[in-house]
Amino acid sequence: MTTTDTAPIGLAYDDDGSGLPIVFLHGGWLSAESWAGQRERFGDEHRIVVPDLRGHGRTGPSDARRYSVDLMADDLDALLSDLGIEECVLCGLSLGSMVAQSYAARHPDRIQGILLAGAVQTFPPVAMPRAMKRALSPLPMLGSSLAFTGSGATFRSLLSTIRPLTGGPWLARDPEVREAALETVDTMSKSEFKKVFSALYRFEPPALDGLSVPARVVYGEHEVPPVKRQSKELAGALGSDVYKVAGAAHLVNQDSPNGFNRVLSGLLEEVEGGV
Fold it and tell me: Where do the AB hydrolase-1 domain residues begin and end (predicted)?
């Protein structure tokens, strides 16, 4: 692991291998470790770059009073420029899918292919007028929950509201994957948790019609219906098929590494074959 001091914030990241660069962007409140199965599978043939996003993992907190998805996309641009990566395949899950959308819309010439997993256009994944969304903001209640119970308990409470929609664990069906994710959330400070939540909640999806590259949109069989619906809308915008991975939930790349990796392999073949 090396750390870059690139403005506006130094991102901790792993950069290994050679060949076509693949950049993996993790989900909210998680870390670069969540891509271990993909690094192992693709690391012999490709350059793999896996940052910890602002506020997460080894990167840790920043002095910014407020986070946004666009700010995280700016962080990514600074990192890739520092690494001399002019073009890459971008792969993002959940929050990472939002950062990937923002980055690709701003820098379409730097994208060779894109994969969005557990992908959403809004958070929560239900479109509503901006004024209504502001009025219904859960941030004050979230602040109270964080103050009394902390990051881990607040996250678990959020998960409990989703479970009825899936008939089982939504985050991951594999208990070890789920526990590892929850342990990662436990390590995040209350203030960083709230800044990340706010970035998710305030995200406004960019237009992706200027992006004309090979694309894949992926979700797990046990994903919630609103995420599936928005994933299909994203696939339409990207001219992509939607790939459903059997037996997996939201953390599709960890719940079913083989199923997820097959989809990514197909994308890489298309990118490298120039089809």
Answer: 22-261
Listed as ranges, residues in the chain with pLDDT below 70 are 1-9, 275
Structurally, the chain folds into a number of domains equal to 1
Pick from 20, 23, 28: which is nearest to 45 by CA? 20
For residue 35, give the DSSP letter: G
Q: Is the peptide bond before 225 cis (omega within 30 degrees of 0)?
A: no
| Backbone φ, ψ for residue 22 (5° rounding) | -115, 125
Of the candidates 91, 141, 93, the one whose C-alpha atom is nearest the C-alpha of residue 264 is: 91
Environment class of 186 (CB within 10 Å of its CB; exposed 0-12, middle 13-18, buried 19+)? middle
Helix, strand, or coil (residue 93): strand
In 3D space, the residue among 167, 191, 194, 172 whose CA is nearest the CA of residue 183 turns out to be 172
For residue 117, list its beta bridge partners. Answer: 93, 218
- CATH code, domain with 79: 3.40.50.1820
- CA 105 to chain centroid: 16
Residue that the structure tokens 């959020």 belong to: 158
Q: Cα-flanking dihedrals φ and ψ of residue 16, to 5°?
A: -135, 155
Distance CA 76, CA 63 (A): 17
Which residues constitute the domain of residue 22? 2-273
Q: Report d(CA 241, CA 217) in Å as an integer.
A: 7
Neighbours of 109 (CB within 10 A): 10
Please state the separation of Cα 109 from the chain's center in Å.
21
Helices 95-106 + 69-82 axis angle, to 10 = 70
**Backbone φ and ψ of 206, nearest 5°:** -80, 160
Please tell me whether residue 82 adopts helix, strand or coil conformation.
helix
Separation CA 182–CA 150 (nearest Å): 12
